[in-house]
């Protein structure tokens, strides 16, 4: 057991360590309320990072290296008619992300194909596949080969006449860590998803992986605070949204920007309200409307990663393909939730009516 | 009494008017759910604009003119020790806003006094007052005189040892339109509100006024998507947050900006998720900590109005007092909710667990 006294402008105390574990006892000087305490305390084997003291009471966090980082790869692409070529390009991108250090790679929504929901066409159900199936085998193999976790977004054929928009998370060993079936299904001109996808029946459940507990949802879900909150209440460490969203060309540039900004704002709002990072990966490029009824969709790219205060850590351009690895400090979520302990004060006894369609 | 039959693609019915008031009786055709009904019905003296029909039930709003704009005054101020002087300054500001055309004036949180929650001091309960009481009488008188609706934020003494942080909305005739008792109570260094305020027991209920249905909450409530959603589900047309929030001087400038941005982002996120505007009115100026434990609070001002896509319509500076009137087009909420009909698709059968503290 090593004992070391600690003195610092904002705290003083004693650190004990036996080389593998440690105990810290601190008192904080009276003027250190609401401050980060950035005292570094070096003992025999450990660098202790001490921080945050509330209310004259004591709070501390200690880790070997004080930080829990995750390298997150995002792949923003254009798609073409030939699904095989899309998948080959995705494999290349995943390899590239892994070579850049990614431990987790997130793909965009329905990445294997064009966004086929621009028209209602029964022939397009041919694009669907079972889970497990060819895609989980292929991306699972890649996950195993590269030792990364991959968030895929697939068109699932569950039974004849029963299809879902399903995110499948593949573990580093190639197995299926879990899946999420898109819960909120949109239906707008050029986004006829209610024709293709039955709303998910797995609820909002985070998926436990070797890199963390992932709150995966899909696209339209991103507009709903309820899903984000339910993920956070189940311990999700990240909110993740594979997405396919873009502009309608007849909207004014100002309206297009308002929509893109709204899309970012609501998701960054989930990050703030829940004190965890958000990752949204969107497709890019123009895809024509096969029916000719609209001018097609100009997908707005802009994939982004926001930290637990909603702060933008990265944003992709609108019109370029991107493979990018972003370093996210998950320890920051712990800090932010201490500073702003929203979960402490929720008035749950008054939230029952959230299960109503409308209160009239 | 004039009677006029009304026929329109989406509705039919009868309008009665005696020249000064009116009665409308309508039935809606079966295919008009979720639509704006833009029928203009001209009778002797009135052009009635009818709109809003929900889910087979009927809801309508009538105005002389087909657009529904609201002029919203916001008052961002510094406060001083002398409450009488604060109130005099507020009265001047409300008069100024009214003279600029405001129909609704929103004040900052606990506007009559310094933000007294920086320390826990039983003597400060002397600042509290009953509702109705001196403040509702004074601001009510002003509302009547100026013909404006005023959102006030008062320290309420409900009984000996029972206090609330209560927003009171005063109608144009000076009466109390309704009140909201702050539901989520923070407790951080320099924000010792749990000492002063019992959490509200009125729930999240919008307040009907002559200018619209107001979803008034207070400060810490602004971080919670649940309250905003409950207000929207009860037909709130605006979300309104009197606020007192600021920087701790020992935080880095970057951290201060992250906090201020997070504060805006989460509220703009409520606007997006619910398709209605948000008004947040914050105090400005520095207030010292009477205990000397901290460096006091530098309130960050930045009061803002955002539209139903979260788009900023106005933002006040950080360090200046402001009286500003912003023109908000409430018709835009109707349009935005048609484009992005989030309320249509909520998976309410899966939201029951939102009433749990944590799902573990």
Note the topology.
The structure is a homodimer of 360-residue chains.
Chain A: E1 2-7, E2 11-17, E3 22-28, E4 40-42, E5 47-49, E6 69-76, H1 83-99, E7 104-107, H2 134-146, E8 149-159, E9 162-170, E10 176-181, H3 193-196, E11 207-209, E12 212-216, H4 225-233, E13 238-243, E14 246-248, H5 253-274, E15 278-282, E16 284-287, E17 297-300, E18 304-306, E19 312-315, E20 322-329, H6 331-339, H7 342-345
Parallel strand pairs in A: 6-7, 7-8, 12-13, 13-15
Antiparallel strand pairs in A: 1-2, 2-3, 4-5, 6-20, 8-9, 9-10, 11-12, 14-17, 15-18, 16-17, 18-19
Structure write-up:
- 2 copies of one chain form a homodimer.
- Chain A has 360 residues and is of the alpha+beta class.
- Chain A has 2 domains: 65 residues, no CATH class; 262 residues, Carbon-nitrogen hydrolase (Nitrilase/N-carbamoyl-D-aminoacid amidohydrolase, 4-Layer Sandwich), CATH 3.60.110.10.
- Helix content of chain A is 22%, strand content 30%.
- Chain A is built from 7 helices and 20 strands.
- A 6-stranded mixed sheet of chain A has the order 10-9-8-7-6-20. Chain A has a 6-stranded mixed sheet with strand order 11-12-13-15-18-19, with helices on one face. In chain A, strands 1-2-3 form a 3-stranded antiparallel sheet, with no helix packed on it.
- In chain A, helix 1 links the parallel strand 6 and strand 7.
- The first copy, chain A, starts with a strand and ends in a 15-residue tail after the last helix.
- Chains A and B meet through helix 4, helix 5 and helix 7 of A and helix 4, helix 5 and helix 7 of B.
């Amino acid at each position: 057991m090593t004992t070391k006294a600690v003195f610092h402008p904002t705290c003083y105390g004693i650190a004990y360590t036996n080389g593998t574990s440690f105990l810290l006892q601190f008192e904080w000087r009276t003027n250190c309320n609401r401050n980060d305490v950035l005292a570094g305390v070096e003992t025999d084997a450990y660098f202790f990072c001490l921080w945050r003291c509330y209310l004259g009471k004591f709070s501390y966090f200690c880790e070997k290296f004080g930080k829990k980082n995750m390298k997150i790869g995002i792949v923003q692409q254009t798609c073409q008619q030939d699904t095989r070529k899309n998948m080959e390009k995705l494999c290349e991108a995943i390899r590239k992300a892994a070579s850049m250090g990614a431990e987790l790679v997130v793909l965009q929504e329905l990445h294997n194909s064009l966004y086929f929901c621009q028209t209602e066409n029964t022939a397009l159900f041919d694009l669907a596949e079972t889970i497990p199936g060819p895609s989980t085998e292929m991306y699972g193999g890649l996950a195993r080969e590269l030792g990364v976790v991959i968030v895929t977004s697939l068109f699932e054929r569950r039974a004849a006449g029963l299809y879902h928009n399903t995110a499948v998370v593949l573990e580093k060993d190639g197995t299926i860590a879990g899946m999420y079936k898109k819960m909120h299904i949109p239906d707008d001109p050029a986004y006829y998803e209610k024709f293709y996808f039955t709303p998910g029946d797995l609820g909002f459940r985070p998926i436990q992986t070797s890199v963390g507990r992932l709150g995966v949802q899909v696209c339209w879900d991103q507009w709903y605070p309820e899903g984000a909150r339910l993920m956070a209440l189940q311990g999700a460490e990240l909110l993740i949204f594979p997405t396919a969203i873009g502009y309608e060309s007849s909207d004014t540039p100002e309206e297009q920007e308002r929509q893109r900004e709204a899309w970012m704002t609501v998701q960054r709002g989930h990050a703030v309200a829940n004190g965890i990072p958000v990752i949204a990966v969107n497709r890019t490029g123009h895809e024509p409307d096969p029916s000719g009824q609209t001018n097609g969709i100009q997908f707005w790219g802009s994939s982004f990663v926001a930290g637990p205060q909603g702060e933008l850590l990265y944003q992709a351009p609108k019109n370029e393909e991107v493979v990018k690895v972003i370093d996210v400090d998950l320890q920051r979520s712990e800090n932010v939730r201490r500073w702003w302990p929203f979960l402490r004060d929720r008035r749950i006894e008054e939230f029952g009516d959230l299960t109503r369609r409308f209160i009239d």
